[in-house]
C-alpha cells in the first residue's frame, strides 16, 4: 500500500512538474512575442525618423543648391545677380554632354526656370528652334536647365525662388521663378 501511495505521489509530482514546465514555456513564449513586438515598433519608429531626417537634409541641400545656382558662372549675368537667358540652352547642352560631372553636383533633380512677368499666354518650353525665331523671348515661358529623373522615386518636393532674368538680345530684364524638383 505504501508503494502505491508513493507511486501516486510521484505521478502527482510529475504532473505538477509538467504543468510547471508548460507554464514556464508559455511565459517564455509570451515574453519572446512581447520582445519581437517591441523590436518591430522600435524598428518602424527608427525608419520613420531616418526618413524624416533624410527629407530635412535633402531640403537643406536643395536650398543650398538653389543659392549656388544663382551665382554659377555658367548661368549668371556679367553685371549682377541676374540669370542670363542666353546661357540657358548652352548650359542644358553642357549638362547633357558632361552628365556624370553634373550628376554628381546636381544629383537626381529637375531644374526649370519659368518666366513670370510679363505674363505669358503659352506654356512653351524653350528650345533652340524657339530661340532662333523672331518672336523670341515672347515665345518661351520655360527653360529646362537640368533633368535627371530616376526610374523609381517615392516623392518629389519642389523648392523655388524668384529670379531676375536678363535677355541680352533686348537688353531687358524680366521676372522669373527657378524651380528645383528633388526626387527622393
The number of helical runs is 4
Largest sheet: 5 strands, mixed
Q: How many E-type strands?
A: 5
- Sheet with the most strands: spatial strand order: 1-4-5-2-3
Number of domains: 1
**Strand percentage:** 15-25%
Order of helices and strands: HEHHEHEEE
Poorly predicted ranges: none
Averaged pLDDT: 83
The secondary structure category is alpha+beta
What is the share of helical residues? Answer: 40-55%
Give the N-terminus to C-terminus distance in angstroms. 82 Å
Tell me, what's the shape?
rod-shaped
- Tell me the Rg in angstroms: 33 Å
Can I get a quick summary?
By secondary structure, this protein is an alpha+beta fold.
Give a written overview of the molecule:
This protein is α+β, with helices and mostly antiparallel strands. The protein has one domain (1-184). The protein is built from four helices and five strands, in the order H-E-H-H-E-H-E-E-E. It has a five-stranded mixed beta sheet. The longest helix is centred in the first third of the chain and has 69 residues, at 2-70.
Amino acid at each position: 500500500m505504501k508503494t502505491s501511495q508513493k507511486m501516486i505521489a510521484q505521478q502527482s509530482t510529475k504532473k505538477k512538474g509538467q504543468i510547471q514546465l508548460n507554464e514556464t514555456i508559455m511565459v517564455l513564449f509570451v515574453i519572446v512575442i512581447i520582445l519581437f513586438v517591441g523590436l518591430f515598433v522600435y524598428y518602424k519608429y527608427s525608419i520613420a525618423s531616418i526618413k524624416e531626417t533624410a527629407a530635412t537634409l535633402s531640403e537643406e541641400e536643395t536650398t543650398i543648391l538653389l543659392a549656388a545656382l544663382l551665382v554659377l558662372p555658367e548661368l549668371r549675368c556679367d553685371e549682377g545677380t541676374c540669370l542670363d537667358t542666353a546661357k540657358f540652352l548652352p548650359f542644358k547642352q553642357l549638362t547633357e554632354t558632361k552628365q556624370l560631372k553634373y550628376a554628381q553636383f546636381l544629383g537626381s533633380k529637375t531644374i526649370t526656370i519659368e518666366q513670370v512677368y510679363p505674363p505669358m499666354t503659352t506654356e512653351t518650353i524653350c528650345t533652340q528652334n524657339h530661340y532662333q525665331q523672331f518672336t523670341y523671348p515672347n515665345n518661351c515661358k520655360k527653360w529646362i536647365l537640368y533633368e535627371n529623373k530616376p526610374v523609381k522615386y517615392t516623392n518629389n518636393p519642389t523648392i523655388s525662388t524668384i529670379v531676375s532674368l536678363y535677355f541680352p538680345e533686348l537688353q531687358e530684364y524680366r521676372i522669373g521663378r527657378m524651380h528645383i524638383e528633388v526626387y527622393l
